[in-house]
Amino acid sequence: MGKTHHLEPHLFYYTYGPAEPALVVKPGDTVVTKTRDASGLDEKLRPLPRSLKATSPITRYHEGNPLVGPIAVAGARPGDALAVHIRRIELNRPTAWSSFVPHFGGFTGEGPGRGLLLHSPLPTQRFEWRLDRKRNVGTLTLKRSKVKEIRVPLHPFIGSIGVAPRFGRVETALTPGEYGGNMDCIETRAGTTLYLPVWVEGALLYFGDIHAAQGDGEVCGVALESSAEVTVELGLRKAWPLEWPGLEDRSHIMVAASTRPLEDAFAIAHVEMVKWLVADFGYEKWEAYQVLSQVGTARVGNMVDPNYTVVAKFPRKYLPGAR
């Protein structure tokens, strides 16, 4: 039985990369901590003070998706995989917000490198959602529609979670990649184990950006942004050199891949799934490809970030020994 650590963040980061650990734990330990929402608000809607923001003497960070961490896991070495067992995500305030802004989202054409501006930029709009945490329902009052009120089920998950990238890189908290990051995958919820490649000693885990709910693709670029108390148990799988994040829950094993274009993310996720089926579950390569083609499903985590994320999913009932 590992130790439980209650982490009180003294600094929130806006990047994934090398940094002094906020906490060092052993495999099997549990970490309980509170996150801020994507704009830095806490459970009482207080903004993140400047003293708690990571800064740089030579550049300015984009202050979105403040991250708790980094958490170092003793014994983690390059070539291992960090196992993040997500035990609990407890929303801790009765509201969430969403928005859309110019030059951002899944359908904007006016961003850098996208050619001529042939339409007006999106208007800035903010939407305030009420959260009934006992009934697990979010409610939005609509002011200009025939439908006056919408209620949706809540399914809180960690929008941005990852480790320090390979080759000493530093990546913004808004970007997903082979290190995890801002994948916006609803599968990173309580009951899921997330496996992340380790490229630096200690792994250096960061996370934040809790979403109370979100549709596939995070189409407008912003989910139901809120804060939460998060509980994770950390473990190691030694000598398991992952190239991309893996996930598993009671019903599926999964691989998340993040790149552009979207079809490349889709392809990478499925190729890595075939490799996993061969390496760990005794499938022959071409038979794994055939079975995945017939029973696999896929989800678009996001199509709005600097990289897009696709999650390939394989049902556990087709794994050896499943009933």
Question: Mind explaining what this structure looks like?
Answer:
The chain has 323 residues and is mostly beta strands. It folds into three domains: 4-91 and 158-211 and 228-236, Jelly Rolls (Sandwich), CATH 2.60.120; 96-153, no CATH class; 247-318, Roll (Endonuclease I-creI). 10% of the residues lie in helices and 36% in strands. Strands 1-4-17-6-15-18-19-21-20 form a nine-stranded mixed beta sheet. A six-stranded mixed beta sheet has the order 3-5-16-11-14-13, with no helix packed on it. A four-stranded antiparallel beta sheet has the order 7-8-9-10, with no helix packed on it. Helix 1 (262-281) crosses helix 2 (285-295). The chain starts with a strand and ends in an 8-residue tail after the last strand. The model has no long low-confidence stretch (mean pLDDT 93).
Query: What is the CATH architecture term of the largest domain?
Result: Sandwich
Number of helices: 2
Helicity level: under 10%
Q: Which superfamily, in CATH terms, is the homologous superfamily of the largest domain? A: Acetamidase/Formamidase-like domains
Using the coordinates above, name the CATH class of the largest domain: Mainly Beta
